[in-house]
């Protein structure tokens, strides 16, 4: 049984990951801004016989994320897995100049990830073990129009996580999971009408979020000496 912290657990992939890992007997600590959603999810987990804590956090706030990790260690004595999952995707072409949305993607998808590493790494080093899981994207492997900034943040997430893998001492495992199109609320943040219309077609075929949860479960379920570094999971029909 591991203590697993998940950012962005209030919907989509984070929620599915919490449900699956709790079902598999792990203790999950649920982080996001929408605390009502987290409380309802924790109740669902408890009713099914699992255990979960709720922690309200904004990943753009470094102190919030540090508090998330510290509180888990205080309550459970250790932090085994940190899933850096929170992300936003308000797509648009660069010439739309929706610069505030660019900033938000950088703040959540890049700074939020760095805050997670800063929060988890001291505990992992003290313990001599730990597993950091980053949710990147197939957008960390290719760029498409309207997704320049989003893909930029996901290339960055993948690069930073690979750097963490190379620098981390033995005992610390590091995994990047790159989902293809997956059913979630991610596209709801798109305000640009052109990007929104394009996404309707692009997202017509989706994976259930539990398909990504299963990949995360596979990575953390390996024996200690086995480090699954990268997993890409697409719907069969996605090119
Ligand atoms: N779905 C896909 O097709 C797909 C494909 C590739 C990669 N991904 C990646 O998978 C991850 C999960 O996304 P999803 O698809 O499950 O989307 P989602 O349903 O929109 O979930 C995103 C989660 O991130 C949280 N979040 C957003 N901003 C936050 C902040 N400032 N602080 C804390 N939490 C924040 C949200 O919680 P609150 O709003 O409650 O804070 C929510 O729980 C993201 O990193 C995304 O880029 C998704």
From TrEMBL:
Molecular function as annotated in GO: oxidoreductase activity
Keyword Oxidoreductase among UniProt keywords: yes
Keyword terms, alphabetized: Oxidoreductase
Protein EC: 1.-.-.-
Classification via PROSITE patterns: ADH_SHORT
Pfam families (UniProt xref): adh_short
InterPro entries: NAD(P)-bd_dom_sf, Sc_DH/Rdtase_CS, SDR_fam
Signal peptide range: none
Family from the record: Belongs to the short-chain dehydrogenases/reductases (SDR) family.
Protein name according to UniProt: SDR family oxidoreductase
Taxonomic source organism: Amycolatopsis melonis
């Amino acid at each position: 049984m591991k203590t697993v912290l998940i950012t962005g657990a209030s919907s989509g992939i984070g929620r599915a990951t919490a449900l699956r890992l709790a079902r598999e007997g792990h203790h999950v600590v649920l982080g996001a801004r929408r605390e009502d959603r987290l409380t309802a999810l924790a109740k669902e987990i408890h009713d099914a016989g699992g255990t979960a804590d709720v922690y309200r956090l904004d990943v753009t706030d470094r102190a919030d994320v540090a508090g998330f990790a510290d509180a888990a260690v205080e309550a459970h004595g250790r932090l085994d897995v940190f899933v850096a999952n929170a992300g936003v995707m308000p797509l648009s072409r660069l010439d739309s100049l929706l610069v505030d949305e660019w900033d938000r993607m950088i703040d959540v998808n890049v700074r939020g990830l760095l805050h997670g590493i800063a929060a988890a790494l001291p505990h992992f080093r003290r313990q001599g073990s730990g597993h950091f899981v980053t949710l990147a994207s197939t957008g960390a492997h290719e760029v498409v129009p309207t997704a320049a900034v989003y893909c930029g943040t996901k290339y960055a997430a993948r690069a930073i996580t690979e750097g963490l893998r190379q620098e981390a001492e033995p005992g610390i495992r590091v995994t990047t999971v790159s989902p293809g199109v997956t059913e979630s609320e991610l596209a709801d943040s798109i305000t640009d009408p052109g990007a929104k219309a394009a996404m309707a077609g692009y997202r017509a075929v989706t994976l259930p979020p539990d398909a990504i949860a299963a990949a995360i479960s596979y990575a953390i379920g390996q024996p200690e000496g086995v480090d699954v570094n990268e997993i890409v999971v697409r719907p069969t029909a996605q090119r």
